[in-house]
Amino acid sequence: MISPRSTLALAATTMLFSVCSASVDAQFVPGRGTLMTTDDFENPEWGFNFNLPKSSKEEDEQIRYPLGISTNNRWKEGPKRGVPDVVKVVETPYGGLPHSRYALLIRSRETGIPGRPSFTQKQDDLVMVSNSMSVANSPSVVTRVYLPDWDEWERRAGVSFGIRIGLQGPMKKPAEEGRLFRRGRTVTVTEPYYPGFFIQFNPRETSRDGRDNATLIIRANEYGQDLPHLQITQTGWWTFGMSVTPDARVHYYASPGADDLTEADYLTSSLPYGIVGTHFNTLFFNICSGDDGRTWSTPWIIDDPQIFYGQTPQLPATQTAQQRGTGAQGPAPQTAEQPRRIDRPGYNR
Predict the structure, then answer these.
(1) Terminus of the chain with fewer CB atoms < 10 Å: N or C?
(2) Global pTM value
């Protein structure tokens, strides 16, 4: 278990990066509106039912049913890449949300095909079960994430963790050739895509200043490019959020500490991949490792992940689930696929 820190010294230095952004009045702070789905991990009976071996469809086309699912039916294994090897409630590290006693630890050792190390970066996915909704409902997500002390990180340069949302929208694709289609013809299809944050570890052995640090990477601009945005130099609790406006633009927020997000925590906005999305499906987390069969990933702890809808609440919104109670649950979302390969950010949509 990660030992509590006596103090939290958190800092982020904004990198000199130019990214497409919307005006402040064209976006809204995540967590404003009606709480739809959440989990505070406070139930003493909370657990996760692993149905091993886990799925690895992306690597070998194997979806191994039944998929793993939490005892409260709020979390499920991602069939494309499988569930993290550890999904366990632990005591909340120091400095977390007020009244939070427990949070969720997620980490992995085998992130590729079970029992077959690839010795390359792979990932597992923990998917929140939620209702799908139109982006006209102004969905948003908020989560707290505990970054452990640097000496607890997997000593691998590359992406360690992801916070993602599942969207879908129309895309033009080349039509299949045949009698009915001429060469060069395109068709419009509905495709999923997955904006979000990645946290990339830069170990002191390879970093420019000889110190451990991390880079917060935003996925993605309208061309599908991942953008380094913040350098994280110290550890502890952080709050991350994304909001989606009816024009399908995604607005990114982050702040050190476990406090609610404010306008001051705004980072940037984009229309990821240039897709004008129509629906929001879910929130999910990526755990990455070097998949050597021996080395564990960085231990990540999350608390109170939340999904909201509606931009203008009747009462002032609070993003603390312990104060608001648990949210309603709906049918399972469409399965989230995850990043393109990233050894220095990358992956697929």
Answers:
(1) N
(2) 0.83
